Amino acid sequence: MNLNLDKSAWKRVALGDVAKHVTDRVDAETSGLERFLAGEHIPSNELAITQWGVIGRDPIGPMFYKRFKPGHVLYVSRRSYLRKTAVPEFEGVTGEKTFVLESRDESVLLQRFLPFVLSAEVFHSYAVTNSRGSVNPYINWTELANYEFGLPAVDEQQRLADLLWAMERHRAELDRQVSAIEAALQRFLAHAFRAAPGPRVKIVDLCTDVIGGIWGSPKGEAEVDVLALGPRVYADGATQLATDGSPVRSVSRRQADVRLVRDGDIILERSGGSPSQPVGRVVIARGELAPCIPTDFQRLLRPNREVVEPHFLFWRLRHDWATGVTRNYAKKTTNITNLSVKDYIARSIVVPSIDDQIHLLSRVDSFEDALTSVARESSKLHALHRSLQGEIFGGVE
After folding, report:
1. Is 148 exposed, middle or buried (0-12, 13-18, 19+ CB in 10 A)?
2. From residue 239, how far is each of 266, 317, 371 by CA, in Å?
3. Could you write out the three-class secondary structure of 129-171?
4. Which uninterrupted H or E stretch holds 384?
5. φ and ψ of 98, to 5 deg
6. For residue 10, which of 117, 158, 162, 157 has the smallest C-alpha distance?
7. Which of 36, 156, 361, 395 has the largest count of CB atoms under 10 Å?
8. Rounded CA gap, 100 and 96, in Å?
9. What is the mean pLDDT, run by run of 10 residues, along the chain of 397 residues?
């Protein structure tokens, strides 16, 4: 898709000349407002806000004094690389490090066009480059106001905003579809596992091996170079193991022989998690993989195929994680939550016959097929959105 834009009449403007930083100060506790937005409530790479804090119920810091209204553009100035730009549909309060932005004059810059200015790759690149500090980098309003971009006439802004908002609504609808399918899958699994006939067997007895991970040495220092699996393998709710982006480490041949991941192996998260995300996530290896090993904070579970289908055990462990079972086997050390793997896999679960397991997995496949279809459409939409953003904001001819 190509917009065939004629940018010859577009004006080069600075953000601060066409948009202002709104600083409407209120006292959160006495403002009469119900909601507040902290950084964690504002998503990355999405304009819609679906989470918030409740004033008077949830902890709120003293620096939350900036009122925002529906349609304002919120930009989180800390850690610009997280790309947090959003548009609330409600009134509330946010913190001092979140900019509340609005058009100075809608005959020059449409408010509904502004979110896309602040979502463009070129804008994010500028914000990251001009951020200060290393541990918790931030960009101040003066630097942000100096950001320059090409601004079309209002009628063209309207046309482009209509297109981009339509794509944003479609993306949100795809997200809702994913949530609905995942919720239906969890309901199915809960019923299937609860109703399944069969003996109770300890998880550890369903595995031929339970193997600890290692970090190894820098690349080239030992006998074998392998990919070391990190936390990113669990990102975005992944179910299948992917090694993309895993660092190369070096281990002895003996260490590699024991730990190299095979088809059907389950990689269990032993350390990590947060208050909102329990430790104990799992992914399963499918097919051929580049040589890779689990790292220190993981355990490799190798199912015994004579008694359990690897994917049956995987979905049982994933369901247990999703329903919070792992919290009962987790201990927090400083800010890190560790799973007591020994106790966790000493649990007994119902193991139906292989035929019943296969039947259950065939039902799960239908859910996975639906999720794959939505994910494929979402990926195409994301690519198109990035392409259009680049065409619109990539420079003025």
Report:
1. middle
2. 10, 11, 11
3. HCCECCCCCECCHHHHHCCEEEECCHHHHHHHHHHHHHHHHHH
4. helix 354-393
5. -105, 120
6. 157
7. 36
8. 9
9. 84 96 93 93 92 92 94 95 95 95 97 96 93 89 95 96 95 94 96 96 98 96 96 91 95 96 97 83 96 96 98 98 94 83 97 97 97 94 91 71
CA atoms within 13 A on the CB side of 174: 19
- CB contact at 8 A, 239 and 284: yes
Q: How far out from the chain centre does Cα 158 lie?
A: 31
Give CA–CA dist 250/252, Å, rounded.
7
d(CA 145, CA 118): 12
Q: Which residue has the tokens 């931030």?
A: 138
The two three-digit tokens of residue 139, written as one number: 């960009």
What's this model's pTM, rounded to 2 decimal places? 0.81
Tokens found for residue 232: 């990113």
Q: How many CB atoms lie within 10 A of CB 257?
A: 10
Strand arrangement, sheet containing 298-303: 207-212, 298-303, 266-269, 282-284
Measure the CA–CA gap between 74 and 89, rounded to whole angstroms: 11
Q: Are 241 and 283 in contact (CB under 8 A)?
A: yes
